[in-house]
Design a protein that fits this description.
single chain, alpha/beta, Rossmann fold, 5 helices, 4 strands, globular
């Protein structure tokens, strides 16, 4: 099973997105949200991201990381570089964090592989919410 890690500058946002995705995909998909600084402020924490990556990698065949902003991408890349073994099984996806995470979680729940789950995050960019 492929796992998902949502990285947001807000811990509440990261947890909320994971909650929505878990309701849509079911309990089989390992999901975790990581956000905020060690002091509880808005931002990201490379050590916290690294710990989350390690936990999720221990429970999965691969990991798709869905960051909210550019500095979250940088923090995720830094954490991935610190992983001892298995960094090639971590993909940092580029797409809308909420829609991408939900679609990727559903895709993971039906057994899709790492590259497919990561690509779904980007495909979410093309979704229309209205028919106007």
């Amino acid at each position: 099973m492929i796992a998902l890690l949502v990285i947001s500058h807000s811990a509440e946002v990261a947890r909320g997105i994971c909650s929505i995705a878990a309701q849509m995909a079911g309990p089989s998909v390992p999901l975790e949200g990581c956000g905020g600084t060690e002091e509880g402020a808005l931002g990201t924490s490379v050590p916290a991201i690294l710990e989350a990556m390690e936990r999720l990698m221990a429970r999965s065949e691969g990991l798709v990381v869905v960051p909210d902003l550019g500095s979250a991408v940088l923090a995720a890349r830094t954490a991935r570089e610190m992983i001892e073994g298995g960094a090639e099984r971590i993909v940092i996806a580029d797409g809308p964090v909420l829609e991408g995470t939900v679609l990727a979680a559903v895709e993971a729940s039906v057994g899709a592989g790492l590259e497919r789950v990561a690509s779904v995050v980007g495909e979410a960019r093309d979704l229309k919410k209205t028919q106007d």
